[in-house]
Design goal:
The protein has helices at 16-39, 43-52, 55-65, 73-80, 87-98, 104-128, 137-158. It is mainly α. It has one domain (16-158).
């Protein structure tokens, strides 16, 4: 008699809140490094740090899912896609093309929603903090980019394909 066995395939669940936290912290670290190097007026280093902010959401997503060694190509897409003016189009295109688990269309939508949330966070800070003193702009940029990164990381986890 042959024993019959069944195999079930389950989708590994990762908490989007955890991915959002990891992505937000990684992006905030790179943004804070950018702000500090920008104030020190070291152009080569702050340009590199600004490009590294594109890696933050992808790195947080990969750390939360535990797939850093398998999806490392998406980090390259995040680095190249971190060019400030082209980030709206280039980041989702490159990250989606170099990742096996992400859809380019969903990344465009996630990036758009995350950019809106980051701008809203920055505008809320303008209401809370004194707007006559420009010393808070570095912290405001860091918080806005961290909100963008956290939102992208959460949506990348929630909308991934297997």
């Amino acid at each position: 008699m042959l024993p019959l066995t069944t195999m079930t395939v389950t989708r590994p669940t990762t908490n989007p809140w955890l991915a959002s936290l990891y992505a937000g912290v990684c992006t905030a670290i790179f943004a804070a490094i950018f702000v500090l190097l920008f104030q020190a007026e070291i152009p080569v280093l702050y340009i590199i740090a600004l490009l590294l902010t594109g890696i933050g959401p992808v790195l947080g997503y990969l750390l939360a899912n535990g797939t850093l060694s398998q999806e490392w190509k998406a980090l390259i897409g995040g680095l190249i896609g971190g060019i400030p003016v082209l980030e709206i189009i280039l980041w989702p295109l490159l990250v989606g093309a170099l990742s096996r688990t992400q859809s380019i269309g969903k990344l465009f939508l996630a990036n758009l929603i995350a950019l809106i949330l980051g701008v809203l966070a920055f505008l809320l800070l303008t209401k809370v903090l004194p707007s006559q003193d420009p010393s808070w702009l570095g912290a405001g940029f860091t918080i806005a980019v961290a909100v963008w990164g956290g939102a992208c990381g959460a949506m990348m986890t929630a909308w991934r394909k297997l």
